Amino acid sequence: MNKLRLDELQMAWLVARRELRDQFRDWRVIVPMVFLTLFFPFLMNATAKAALDFTAQYGTPLVAERLVPFFMMVVGFFPITVSLVIALESFVGEKERGTIEPLLSSPLKDWQLYLGKLVAASSVPLLTSYLGIGVYLFALVLRNIRFPDPNILAQTIVLTSVQAVLMVSGAIVISTQATSVRAANLMSSFIVIPMALLIQGESILMFWGNNQVLWLAVLAVTILAGLLVRLGVSHFQREALLGREIDVLDFRWMGRTFWRAFRGAARTLPQWYRIEVRAALRRQRIAILSLIVIGVVSALGAYLWLDGHTAELAAASDSPDFANFLTSGLGVPVLDRISAISIFGNNVRAVFFILILGIFSFGVLGMLAYIVNFSLIGLVLAALPLVGLSPLATGVAGILPHAIFELPALIIASAAVLHLGAVLVTPNPQRTLGEVLIETLADWAKVTLGLVLPLLAIAAVVETYVSLPLLLSTLGGLR
Question: In 3D, which of 72, 334, 17 has the Cα closest to residue 203?
Fold first, then answer.
């Protein structure tokens, strides 16, 4: 069995070797790529040197020292964006040149073709990225600039590697779905722009010096890259690649497909709840159970973490600014600012925010937002003793009444997003990628309109007229 698997992987390597030979044969691609890769590190190195000299005049060298690993991350990211064109035209480019028919008519399996293209398209960006980082580090030695911390250095190299695989995987998925190289290049903005935003978020973590959170970012990007590779392998079909000449944005077909999946076999509202909503929940039951466990672990972990750092926070709780903040946040003005409509609107925005993040990350970023929500509960409860309040009494009075409705709504909405990501990366030869996405969005709409929004509306009313008065009463009548 292992020998058979090895032979199958060797067939994928034949495709990769063919691609690499063709790539390195064209000097018009290699020369500009290598030139830009070698030039850009020296530019970033000169910028780092200027920043160090400038900040040294004002006694703030820490800012410039944090810029050094940030520039290294930019140096690693830049060659990937330049060489992304290789991945974008991996399938659709060969189709336009008329060289893909012999490859697709070979006895190779679909996953072997896709994996071979992926390996070849990832090799050049990774090589150029490592080359750029190496040149940048060598220039640091020449300019007598201190090397980044080994932990930051390892994080940056690993992060660059998984980001390269993530971007290339997305580019190959685009190449399999696009009908022309022009369309693929235009759609590359859906890769470059989100990755640029991700780089900005990672840079914030670097400037904060929070290495633990940065490792979590590395883990999240690694999961995303793996899911995107899984997506491409699952939905790649050579027949669809040969048969698709032009795509038309058919809104009528999209609407019919969505409505057919949303309505199902129900003819009345009670039937819709009994048949369709129940079926959607049944399909999402594993995701729901998983999120219940994740939510409990997140809240408990946040509580224990903050409870273990009470000594550091005790000084902050004694400061006048902290007391003023707490008083202004829990006093009478809160009744004037908060209404059931505002609470409901905020919760609805959070649900749609989780959906948007989940669509672009196969549920990973949506789960991050979900974990943050549950972690805040644990952090708030753990912080209450610092100001002389009981976590149990405050939680029962101020959180429990509306949490009975709000937390199940959040769990169901997030589970629908997690289920969406799981279905997208599951092989389904009978459905195209677009059909799978529309049908899973219909499942999300079923549970959202049928359960989540009503529960959030009830929770908003309970929070405004029950939880908040009980909380103020428990806090000693701050009215």
Answer: 72
Report the distance separating Cα 367 and Cα 294, nearest Å. 9
What pLDDT score does 58 carry?
63
Distance CA 233, CA 117 (A): 11
Residues in Cβ contact with 152 at an 8 Å cutoff, skipping those fewer than 6 apart? 69, 206, 211, 214
Instruction: Give the CB-side neighbour count of residue 280, counting CA atoms within 13 A.
Output: 31
pLDDT over threshold 60, residue 126: yes
Whole-number Cα distances in Å, 242 to 24, 94, 99, 321 = 26, 11, 12, 66
> Nearest to residue 262, comparing CAs of 439, 119, 76?
439
Query: SS3 sequence, 322-386?
Result: HHHHHHHHHCCHHHHHCCHHHHHHHHHHHHHHHHHHHHHHCCHHHHHHHHHHHHHHHHHHHHHHH
Contact between residue 23 and residue 29 where contact means Cβ atoms under 8 Å apart: yes
Choose among 446, 398, 48: nearest CA to 263.
446
Q: What are phi and psi of 431, to 5 degrees?
A: -130, 140
Q: CB-hemisphere CA count at 13 Å for 3? A: 0
The encoded tokens of residue 386 equal 């610092």
The separation between CA 6 and the C-alpha centre of its own chain, rounded to angstroms, equals 32
Mapped onto helix, strand or coil, the DSSP state of residue 244 is coil
Poorest-pLDDT segment among 137-141, 306-310, 388-392: 306-310
The reported pTM is: 0.70
End-to-end Cα distance, the chain: 73
**Helix, strand, or coil (residue 476):** coil
Average pLDDT value for the chain:
77
pLDDT digits (tens, 9 = 90+) for 215-241: 777 887 888 788 778 777 777 776 666
Say if residue 458's pLDDT is above 90: yes
CB within 8 Å of 335: residues ≥ 6 apart: 468, 472, 479
Report the distance separating Cα 266 and Cα 277, nearest Å: 10
Say if residue 88's pLDDT is above 50.
Answer: yes
The pLDDT tens digits for 181-191 are 777 777 777 67
- Provide the residue count of the chain: 479
Say which DSSP state 284 is in: T
Cβ burial of 479 (10 Å; 0-12, 13-18, 19+) is: exposed
- d(C-alpha 420, C-alpha 444), whole Å: 8
Residue 151 in contact with residue 127, Cβ under 8 Å? Answer: no
Q: How far is CA 185 from CA 35, 84, 197, 335, in A?
A: 22, 9, 19, 52
Beta-carbon count within 10 A of 298 CB: 21
